[in-house]
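Internal tracking record. Fields below are filled automatically when a chain is submitted to the structure queue. Please do not edit lines marked as system-generated. If the sequence contains nonstandard residues, flag them in the REMARKS field before resubmitting.
Queue: standard
Priority: normal
Entity type: single polypeptide chain
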Amino acid sequence: MAGWLAGWPRTPVLTCTTHLYDFEGRRFLLPQLDDRRLDDPYAEVSELCLAAAPRRSLSWERQPNVEDLILHRTARRKGWSWGL
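SYSTEM-GENERATED OUTPUT FOLLOWS
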């Protein structure tokens, strides 16, 4: 590269980020689990779930009411980004 961009660090573009959803459908970003820091974020999350399994008190079952809230909030978030 030439010119004023030559000195800038080249960071790869994020293609995969990880979010945690609570029981009310709120989304929390887990910044340490992305494809810039890990080779395979999906494998890392599954390993974390397996490691936490003996110590957790709640099940990892799907909850349709929470999934509906997540889908609703995702649609609203995408609607704002498309509208801007």
